[in-house]
What we know:
About 45% of the residues lie in helices and about 30% in strands.
Amino acid sequence: MDKKYFVYILLTEKGTFxxxxxxxxxKRFETHLQGKGAKYTRANKPIxxxxxxxxxxxxxxxxxxxxxxxxxxxxxxxxxxNFQKN
Length: 86
């Protein structure tokens, strides 16, 4: 079985977004909730996963994460809105 990688976006209590990549989104989200995840999510408590996209390789996921992190907040909102429609 091939390992899959995911890019995800979390919504925080402050209304900001956090984007990351992982091979297990739920496990990573739980790590963020426990305050053991990224420095950003330790200071900005995540509420929920609002976006997730699957990739076949780690490098593809990392490339997409970098692309998303460069987007404006408004563009991230649009990306999330389009994802949630599907």
